[in-house]
Amino acid sequence: MSKAYIGIGSNLGDRQLNIDKALEKLKTRKNIQLNKVSPVMETEPVGDITQPKFLNACCEINTTLYPDELLSALKSIEREMGRGRDALPKKLSVEEQLMALEDGGNAKVLLKNKQQASDNINDESRWAPRIIDLDILLYDDIIMKGNNLIIPHKFLHERLFALEPLSQIAPKLMHPVLKKTINDLLSECRMNNIPHNDNVAMPPLAHSEPDNPKSLLELICRLLKISGPKLSKTGISNEAH
Fold this sequence. Notes:
Blueprint: E1 2-10, H1 15-28, E2 32-37, E3 41-43, E4 54-63, H2 67-80, H3 94-102, H4 107-125, E5 133-139, E6 144-145, E7 150-151, H5 160-169, H6 182-192, H7 213-224, E8 231-232, E9 235-236
Antiparallel strand pairs: 1-4, 1-5, 2-4, 3-4, 6-7, 8-9
Helix pairs in contact: 5-6
């Protein structure tokens, strides 16, 4: 049997109940054995869409399904739970091919236009709210890239909401492409996601009184590591230094 890791997310309806139902459906699927489930974590949504927060988790499964068969099983569960994620098919139906021939059209051009329409829909809906989201994150140490499936998940190393729960059940698991453990990827991702604070207080040295010529000149001289000019009550003396 092969070992795979599945990312689970929900931000519509009863999020916890949705995750529980998805896990229960995985348990009852033929050729899938549920091994481990991470703690559920609440995470901020990603993207430019205003939407509710997510609950995210990961699970480890053993399966005799091939990756594409596992993907079909996950999509089936999503549809059963009310999610219609599938966009336009990326292949022309027999009817569409015949229509292209009858109209004197080019089937390759028609297919390209259909694929572009499908890609546009996917781009718009990638960050949309969803009842349930089931993604294959890793499958053994397989590296594959198909039209509908990329393993390891191409955004895994960038997503805290996937890495954090995954690290709870497989911290030393090695990413087959990046050759780094999940814990290492999580640390890097956390570093890259540290927010920048533009309102950081200036160091005390910069709070010297700018309106006081003596204080300002002393500050400049200290920074340049030179001796400062002598000041009289009326201003700067002309004595060389």
